[in-house]
Give the backbone structure.
Amino acid sequence: MNRAELLILWYAVDGSTPIAWLLPPDEAALVLNKPSHDLEERDLTAVLCRMLDRGWLRLTCDKPPASGMTSRQLIEFGYTRDTIPGPTEEVPYFAVTESGGAEWSRWFRPDWSRYIAEWTDVIGLTGLARCADEHHLRQFFETACSLRSAPAADSDSAVWKSITPWHATDWKTLPTGHEVTYRLMGDFDDGFYPDWDCSDGPWCPAQKRIFELREWYRPWREVEEDL
């Protein structure tokens, strides 16, 4: 396992990722808020093909441009695609397999009781969050309700349920999960802004707590030291 391979697994560990986000090399750093893999196109393609051969990744594309494309051809096609599909094209994605997830876990040592999967719909003003640990999820939701900036969760709208089993990611299934759905509150016309008037910095305490509750694996600086 080298640095680039581990980063690529990390990019898609909790969901499929567009191949187009991998180039230029610093794109992942900007879009995914993770370190750059530092590979140019030729080397990146070789790494992706090797990871596919090892069974760590899989490619998905509902509408490939031609039948019978090789993995290399689909990767190279993916570099050129916009991440928003048009009416006659589809964006190629790469996803982590169970084997790839096991490799990632060996280095990052995740705590799945802290993993939170979250979705928000700013048009429909709805939100959803899931976690294996109900207490941890309730802490997260209560903190989300106390945010002083959009989007904040509406505590009175919460609907809770259990999920058995819970398919937490493309490659990881847990025996049980817990889910809360809710409405979102706030003025979204001007975008999303934190409370800049907090005395302890640019993020309000609730936003900082949200970040803490989302931590569920070793930080990259520790992982990189072990490579």
The domain at 3-108 is CATH 1.10.10.10 (Arc Repressor Mutant, subunit A). The longest strand covers residues 177-185. Helices lie at 3-11, 27-31, 41-53, 71-79, 98-108, 134-145, 205-213, 220-226. The radius of gyration is 19 Å.
